[in-house]
Amino acid sequence: MTFMGGVNLGGGGPFHIPDSTSLLVLIGAGVVSTTLGWSLISSAMRETPAPVASLVLLLQPALSRVRDVLFFQRPTADHEIFGITLIFAAIFLGSIRR
């Protein structure tokens, strides 16, 4: 938020929350996405073996990128696709039981 505020100020715009509805939306988004999400992850990690939990956590950024491409049509370079493919391959290899 500070970065976005700085960019906004640099462009000549104001750095304030316009109304109480916007403030509640910002607080709600922070509480739901951060607090609730990590609370669920933390509680699930207690019930999951450490290797499985770590592999699932490694999936988060890669799946986030795939979601951006599929749902938001984010442009993706070839090297980014290659990197995501490597991540998925490494997670797959890490999940194979010996």
Which ranges are low-confidence, i.e. pLDDT below 50, for 5 or more consecutive residues?
Answer: none
Sheet with the most strands, sense and barrel status:
none
Rounded to the nearest angstrom, the distance between the terminal CA atoms is: 46 Å
The helix/strand order is HHHH
Q: What general form does the structure show?
A: flat
Radius of gyration: 19 Å
Provide the number of structural domains. 2
Mean pLDDT: 85
Helix content: over 70%
Q: What is the number of E strands?
A: 0
Topology:
Layout: H1 2-10, H2 20-47, H3 50-72, H4 78-95
Write a structural description.
It is a single chain. By secondary structure, this protein is mainly alpha-helical. The chain folds into two domains: 14-47; 49-98. Helices cover 80% and strands 0% of the residues. The chain has helices at residues 2-10, 20-47, 50-72, 78-95. α3 (50-72) runs antiparallel to α4 (78-95). The longest helix has 28 residues, at 20-47. The mean pLDDT is 85.
Key words describing this protein structure:
98 residues; mainly alpha; 2 domains; 4 helices
In summary, what is this structure?
This protein has 98 residues and is mainly alpha-helical.
